[in-house]
Amino acid sequence: MQTDDLKLGAQPTPHHRAHILLLEDDAELAEEIRGELDTRGLAVRHAATGPEGLDEARRARFDLLIVDRMLPGLDGLTIIETLRDEGVHTPVLVLSALNAVDERVSGLKAGGDDYLCKPFAFAELAARIDTLLRRPPPSRQTMMRLGPIELDLIDRTARRGARPIDLLPTEFKILEYLMRHGGQVVTRDMMLEDVWHYRFLPHTNVVDVHIGKLRRKIDAPGEVPMLHSVRGAGFMLRVPD
Predict the structure, then answer these.
(1) Strands, DSSP E only, in the chain?
(2) Residues 13, 63: contact at Cβ < 8 Å?
(3) Where are the domains of the chain?
(4) Helices 122-133 & 27-39, crossing angle to 10 degrees?
(5) Which residues lie below 8 Å from residue 32, measured CB to CB, with a gap of 6+?
(6) How much is the pLDDT for 15?
(7) Which one of 50, 117, 210, 231 has the lowest number of neighbouring Cβ atoms within 10 Å?
C-alpha cells in the first residue's frame, strides 16, 4: 500500500482500490480476513492492539474500519467514540463475540455503522463491507445554527457571529449537544450518558467544570449570555431575547 494513497483528505481516483483498516488481536483470524478481502480487490492494513489501531486511524485515510469489540490496550468502542469525537466519519464495522442485543446496541450507539457477531461467514462479512463502501459520503450540509452561534460539524469549527470560538473536542461535543436541545433544560445525567457515554452515572463534577469553561468561551464580556444554569435542574442554551 502506498503511503501517498492514504494522505488525509485525498480524493479517490476513478479506479480507487478501497483501503480498509482491520483492528483485530486474533492473529489467525486477522490473516484469514486479510486473505479473503485481498482476493476481492481490497487493500487491508492490520493493527493488533487498540492504541496502534487508533494511531493508524488518525494518521491515514481509510475507506472503512473493521474494529474488534475487545482489543488489548484500548477497547473497540472507546476507539470508535474517540474518532467520532475528533470528527472522523469513516464507516465502521464492529466485530464481536458479544452477541447480546444490548451489546449490539452499545456498538451502534458508540458510532459503529454495522455490527457483525463472531463466528461469521466470510460471504456475510464481504456483503456487509460492500454495503458500507457503497454508502454515499456524508453530506456537506452539516451546519448547525442557534441564534448567533454556528457550528460546522465537518470542519469542527464554531463561531458566535463574526467571532471564532476556539473549542477543545469535548467542548465542541457539549456545545453541539446543547444546540440540539436548544431552549430545553439538559440535566447532568443526560450529558454524562450522551456526551461522555458513561454506562453508569458516577458522582462527579466533570459536567460543571466543562460547562464553566464553555460558558467563558461562548459568552464573551459584553455579549448577551446564552448558556444558563437552571437551579436544581441542569443547563440551557437559548437564543438571546
Answers:
(1) 19-23, 43-47, 64-68, 92-96, 114-117, 143-146, 149-152, 157-160, 163-165, 227-230, 234-237
(2) no
(3) 3-133, 143-237
(4) 60
(5) 122
(6) 39
(7) 231
Q: Tell which CATH architecture fits domain 143-237.
A: Orthogonal Bundle (1.10)
Q: At which residue does the C-alpha cell 470528527 appear?
A: 87
Residue range 183-239, pLDDT digits in tens: 999 999 899 988 888 767 778 899 999 999 999 999 999 999 999 999 989 999 999
- Beginning with the edge strand found earlier in the chain, give each strand of the sheet holding 114-117 in spatial order: 43-47, 19-23, 64-68, 92-96, 114-117
Q: Give Cα separations from 29 to 122, 128, 155, 230 (angstroms).
A: 11, 17, 36, 52
The sign of the torsion formed by the CA atoms of 155, 157, 160, 163 equals negative
Beta strands in 58-172 (DSSP E): 64-68, 92-96, 114-117, 143-146, 149-152, 157-160, 163-165
Would you mind telling me the total number of residues written for the chain in this entry?
241
- Grade residue 10 by pLDDT with cuts at 50, 70 and 90: very low
| Residue that the C-alpha cell 450522551 belongs to | 194
If one looks up domain 3-133 in CATH, what number appears? 3.40.50.2300
Among 199, 201, 162, CA closest to 78: 199
DSSP three-state, residue 61: coil
Percent of the chain with pLDDT over 90: 65
